[in-house]
């Protein structure tokens, strides 16, 4: 193992070259066997993900349809109507809190639902980059790992390696820069900690203060609704003074630093943001308006339990009709459903790839045949993953919409039919 070091005023870096024996056939076969187990677990997990996602999507869609048919809009938010007790109500109004939120350490006081203090520390950050050394004095610049074997160049795993005379050489470049980070960067994990040591803790911690009581007119929001007030906006500190002799304000930051223009490792800066402005403010603007759909329980807005076993507790930032709120929720449910379907398909595809990788390993010594097998295995994984994903989706809809389930099941056969019809064509070629 060899290393070279260099340094500039803004960047430090060094290069390390590691050498290890080229893995033999049995070793690669053992690694592939371990990958098969991981692939099997991923493959089984994909079924659970896809099937439960369909149940969740159906339950949510049913609950939204039920809620839209039952929701009522009170005549006024400034009085509690007894006839709406226990019903699903649609409320629109400006947020109002009982007291100011404050951080006395920095002289910040604000009428809002939430006040967040965000703390960052100036720290060393390590970046690792691997490159392959093809020949003495030359570097192979390829965006993915490249393995040279028997005069051929092919891409394999992320990173770069060079195989020569039974040895695998990897050149890794470690660079070090200083950045503002909100989390502690553990310099003990650096390849070279000397000269790049970070503090183990911050002198100031981040936190979020939340108003205990939040109202819209006469109605109090439950804790679940308060949690949904998350439209954080940066707070301008232009009109605030330096709170302490050791704290300097520059722009919208408070700096714990001797010279904020040239910070040192360990220096801290603090910024603030807020969500749900309460009441009109000459500097921050009008009070924040939200639309809430929840169950009325006295003067409180709490979760509404639907017949499908789901709950409705909705809050949207802005002024929306009940129909608009449910339309936005249906759209969100659809996007989430398709996103999880795609994730399930990808997990199934990757699992099948890992499970069939042993076939590729067995023919790895025959370059032309190896590449054909690789293409065939990926095509097989693609077709099987697509068909099984569609069948799993159909199973989720079987008892609720049997006709849709039957149609999706028919679609599941399409990839297999296409794959079978292409086999004779390849043989003729």
UniProtKB/TrEMBL annotation:
Keywords: Endoplasmic reticulum, Membrane, Nucleus, Transmembrane, Transmembrane helix. Residues 1-26 are annotated as: Disordered. InterPro entries: TMEM43_fam. It is found in: Endomembrane system; Endoplasmic reticulum membrane; Nucleus envelope. The keyword Kinase does not apply. Belongs to the TMEM43 family. GO terms for cellular component: endoplasmic reticulum membrane; nuclear envelope. It comes from the Eukaryota. This is Transmembrane protein 43. Pfam families: TMEM43. The keyword Transmembrane applies. It is a multi-pass membrane protein. The chain crosses the membrane at residues 33-51, 338-359, 379-400, 405-423.
């Amino acid at each position: 193992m060899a290393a070279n070091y260099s340094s500039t005023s803004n960047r430090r870096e060094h290069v390390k070259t590691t050498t290890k024996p080229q893995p033999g056939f049995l070793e690669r076969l053992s690694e592939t066997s371990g990958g098969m187990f991981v692939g099997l677990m991923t493959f089984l997990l994909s079924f659970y993900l896809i099937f439960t996602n369909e149940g969740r999507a159906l339950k949510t869609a049913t609950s939204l349809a039920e809620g839209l048919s039952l929701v009522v809009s009170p005549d006024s938010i400034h009085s509690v109507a007894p006839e709406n007790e226990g019903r699903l109500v649609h409320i629109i109004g400006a947020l109002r809190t009982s007291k100011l939120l404050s951080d006395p350490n920095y002289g910040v006081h604000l009428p809002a639902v939430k006040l967040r203090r965000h703390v960052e520390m100036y720290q060393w950050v390590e970046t690792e980059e691997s490159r392959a050394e093809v020949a003495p004095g030359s570097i192979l610049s390829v965006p993915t790992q490249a393995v040279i074997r028997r005069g051929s160049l092919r891409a394999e795993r992320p990173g770069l390696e060079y195989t020569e005379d039974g040895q695998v050489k990897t050149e890794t470049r470690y660079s070090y820069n200083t950045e503002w980070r909100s989390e502690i960067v553990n310099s003990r994990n650096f390849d070279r900690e000397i000269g790049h040591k970070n503090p183990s803790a911050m002198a100031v911690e981040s936190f979020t203060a939340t108003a205990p009581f939040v109202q819209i007119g006469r109605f109090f929001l439950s804790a679940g609704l308060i949690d949904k007030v998350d439209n954080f906006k940066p707070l301008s500190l232009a009109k605030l003074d330096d709170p302490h002799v050791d704290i300097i304000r520059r722009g919208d930051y408070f700096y714990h630093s001797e010279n904020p223009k040239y910070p040192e490792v360990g220096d801290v800066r603090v910024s603030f943001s807020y969500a749900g402005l309460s009441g009109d403010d000459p500097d921050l603007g009008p009070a924040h308006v939200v639309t809430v759909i929840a169950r009325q329980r006295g003067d409180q807005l709490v979760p509404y339990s639907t017949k499908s076993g789901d709950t409705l507790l909705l809050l949207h930032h802005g002024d929306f009709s009940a129909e608009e709120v449910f339309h936005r929720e249906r759209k969100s449910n659809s996007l989430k459903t398709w996103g999880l379907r795609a994730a399930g398909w990808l997990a199934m595809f990757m699992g099948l790839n890992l499970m069939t990788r042993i076939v590729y390993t067995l023919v790895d010594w025959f370059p032309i045949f190896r590449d054909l097998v690789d293409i065939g295995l990926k095509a097989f994984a693609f077709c099987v993953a697509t068909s099984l994903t569609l069948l799993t989706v159909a199973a989720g809809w079987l008892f609720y919409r049997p006709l849709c389930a039957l149609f999706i099941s028919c679609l599941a056969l399409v990839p297999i039919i296409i794959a079978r019809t292409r086999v004779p064509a390849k043989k003729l070629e």
